[in-house]
Specification:
CATH superfamily of the largest domain: Aldehyde Dehydrogenase, Chain A, domain 1
Number of strands: 20
CATH architecture of the largest domain: 3-Layer(aba) Sandwich
Shape: globular
CATH class of the largest domain: Alpha Beta
Bound molecules: NADP nicotinamide-adenine-dinucleotide phosphate, magnesium ion
Structural class: alpha/beta
Radius of gyration: 22 Å
Helix content: 40-55%
Distance between the termini: 59 Å
């Protein structure tokens, strides 16, 4: 795999100050596929200064010109789609077809949506005797995870650029090659020097330095709740704006009138895709007691069918973590009906598609985010019970409701404490706001709500 030995700062690839490197590993065969610099606090400082220096000119660039750069960026992502998909497959382990259909495609849609929003958003409005200006928040420090490596970068950088902000990105150490490709694309798209900067590096070093940097006005983070909490504290102490997209433990609620086979089939696919490494995955399936045994059989069969088609999880630590959760589930009384805590292959960080039945709401596996291909099936007595279980975690990122009548599903969804709900298998919408209730986060991404995160208002009275 192609890897740059520098950091992309102020429009060029420059050597890092230190000599530390990150070895990038293919999780499917455990081979080192590239090395990138591990930037330190000095590198972050250089990048943040470049972003600060570029801010005034970029913020003053007419929105139509910012839209043109985003359109060009989208076009580069289209032209380099195969290369992007291959890179995600190599460093994340995602099966090639999923890399094409999701990892390389969704960012194209999102970049395109922000090219359009930059051109159409009115950055000025009238409120009574005031003119309200929507101005960029400033320099953005973006910290992203590895599970949707390009999507999570584009979901921050595209709205930031559309708003007129400049950016320093610290991507996940497991997937820096995709981030380097993105930096190349930004460069090719003709985005001015300093507007976007990339510092590859480790979370507690480069990530921490970025969150703390005085030149950063907004920290936008996606990742674990544990790290999100620390970033929120750092940002709070410095009175910086902060956006946190954190974990989830979403419920897939199957009401008695629903098409059970479809709801279970789609539900299993939702959890197994990307090897379960999706923050919004519906990892708890809630089924009425009269249909429970049938649902367990359907889910076990659907998971078994996945078998070899599933990719590995991202690294050895995640594999150990996920297998540990499966063991813990069994130890706490859950019944294994598919998969299990043994690694299915000698090489690579694989986890079998796993289904656990007889899971009760207080079990660890029903409360904590596992981030692997593991589905828990819970039994409910009636709708009130289902609602209590669905809302009974610290998280509130996503969810699904299936019912015979759409209106019945909607009525249930209105009572869920969560940021988005798919009704009877609704499709992903890249323009709908995405983000969490409760400990799943602060702020929203995507569409016009995502753009608003990168803007602040100034009111002029007449
Ligand atoms: P993580 O540590 O929260 O990583 C997310 C990002 O934050 C990475 O770029 C990481 O850098 C960086 N980071 C880590 N420590 C930091 C610090 N002290 N200051 C600033 N930045 C820091 O997540 P993870 O370790 O990759 O995964 C652990 C668990 O988090 C998963 O099992 C899953 O439950 C959850 N997770 C959730 C999402 C989501 O989309 N909500 C995504 C990924 C993971 P490094 O890459 O160097 O660690
Ligand atoms: Mg980490």
């Amino acid at each position: 795999m192609k890897a740059h030995d520098g950091l992309y700062i102020d429009g060029a690839w420059r050597p890092a100050t230190g000599r530390d490197v990150i070895e990038v590993v293919n999780p499917a065969d455990e081979q080192v596929i590239g090395r990138v610099p591990a930037g330190d606090a000095l590198d972050v400082d250089t990048a943040a200064r470049a972003a600060r220096a570029a801010l005034a000119a970029w913020a003053a660039t007419p929105p139509a010109e910012r839209a043109a750069r985003l359109t060009a960026l989208r076009d580069v992502l289209v032209a380099r789609k195969d290369e992007i998909a291959e890179t995600v497959t190599a460093e994340l382990g995602s099966p090639p077809q999923f890399s094409q259909a999701v990892h390389a495609s969704v960012p194209i849609a999102v970049a395109g949506s922000y090219a359009e929003l930059a051109a159409t958003h009115s950055f000025e409005e009238k409120v009574g005797n005031s003119t309200v200006l929507h101005e960029p928040v400033g320099v953005v420090g973006a910290i992203t995870p590895w599970n949707y490596p390009l999507h999570q970068i584009v979901a921050k950088v595209a709205p930031a650029l559309a708003a007129g902000c400049t950016v320093v990105l610290k991507p996940a150490e497991d997937t820096p090659l995709t981030a380097q490709l993105f930096a190349e694309a930004v460069h090719e798209a003709g985005v001015p020097a300093g507007v976007f900067n990339l510092v590859t590096g480790l979370g507690p070093v480069a990530g921490q330095a970025l969150a703390e940097h005085p030149d950063v006005d907004l920290v936008s983070f996606t990742g674990s709740t544990a790290v999100g909490r620390r970033i929120g504290a750092v940002a709070g102490a410095a009175v910086k704006k902060v956006a946190l997209e954190l974990g989830g433990k979403s419920a897939n609620v199957i009401l008695p009138g629903a098409d059970l086979a479809k709801a279970v089939g789609v539900g299993v696919a939702n959890v197994m895709s990307n090897s379960g490494q999706t923050c919004s995955a519906w990892t708890r399936m809630l089924v009425h007691r009269d249909q429970y045994d049938e649902a367990v059989e359907l889910a076990a069969a659907a998971a078994a069918k996945y078998g070899d088609r599933i990719g590995p999880v991202v690294n050895a630590k995640q594999q150990a973590r996920v297998l540990g959760y499966i063991e813990k589930g069994v130890a706490e009384g859950a019944r294994l009906v598919a998969g299990g805590p043994e690694s299915p292959r000698e090489q690579g960080y694989f986890v079998s598609p796993t289904v656990l039945a007889d899971v009760t709401p207080e079990m660890t596996i029903a409360q904590e985010e596992i981030f692997g291909p593991v589905l828990s099936l819970l039994r409910y007595e009636d709708e009130e019970d289902a609602l209590r279980i669905a809302n009974g975690t610290v998280y509130g990122l996503a969810g699904a409701v299936w019912a015979g009548e759409e209106s019945e599903a909607v009525a249930f969804a209105r009572r869920m404490d969560t940021g988005q709900v798919d009704i009877n298998g609704g499709r992903f919408n890249p323009l709908a706001p995405f983000g969490g209730y409760k400990q799943s986060g602060v702020g929203r991404e995507l569409g016009s709500h995502g753009l608003a995160e990168y803007l602040q208002t100034k009111s002029l009275q007449f």
